[in-house]
Amino acid sequence: MTARIGVVTFPGSLDDRDTQRAIRVAGAEPVALWHKDKDLKQVDAVVLCGGFSYGDYLRAGAIARFSPVMESLLEQAKAGLPVLGICNGFQILTEAHLLPGTMLRNNHLHFICRDQKLRVENAGTAWTTDYSAGQEIHIPLKNNDGQYVADAYTLDKLEAEGRVAFRYVDFNPNGSQRDIAGVSNEAGNVVGLMPHPEHAVEPLIGTGRTDGLPFFTSILKKLVNA
């Protein structure tokens, strides 16, 4: 039986179908999850996709954090369920305190959309084992509130514990502190990043490369070998 990976749809989600396709391309079975439904349908992992949940009112991810599905997700993530937050999903994970720090408006105050070079800093999380530490990849980026910030103590702790998962290379597109593009929790089962790996899984779309596919093959291999 193949691994089943849930994709949560909130009001305002944009990339749920793209994420489902990326999961399918990797060889797993995507399972649609609705924000009002507490039942995670016994999935093996969950992706919180990109978009503008609830129109980004209050703050990006602030309302989605209180959706019924998040109650179940919080409990199961703390018990070890692999969770990936992409863009708005990353924002939701910080609002839910599954990941440290928070996201602010881009420092240049404009929406940005570009192919972004990243460096893989941690290849040991549930979602990054098919990468190599230090590997440079190109992943599409599109956000308005993508500036990652945290206090100095938290940043130092993330660095010391190897929990910075990805870092921007050559150009910081949103003013994120220490060029941080993605982080993980202590256990490594929860990862969040601003760029969109689901848009880089086939050569005909996104960057024209498949640099995002290892996110999904990494978790598939972990689940199959568990």
UniProtKB/TrEMBL annotation:
It holds the Pfam family GATase_5. GO terms for cellular component: cytoplasm. CDD domains: GATase1_FGAR_AT. It catalyses: L-glutamine + H2O = L-glutamate + NH4(+); N(2)-formyl-N(1)-(5-phospho-beta-D-ribosyl)glycinamide + L-glutamine + ATP + H2O = 2-formamido-N(1)-(5-O-phospho-beta-D-ribosyl)acetamidine + L-glutamate + ADP + phosphate + H(+). NCBIfam families: FGAM_synth_I (TIGR01737), PRK03619.1 (NF002957). Part of the FGAM synthase complex composed of 1 PurL, 1 PurQ and 2 PurS subunits. This is Phosphoribosylformylglycinamidine synthase subunit PurQ. It comes from Streptomyces variegatus. The gene is purQ.
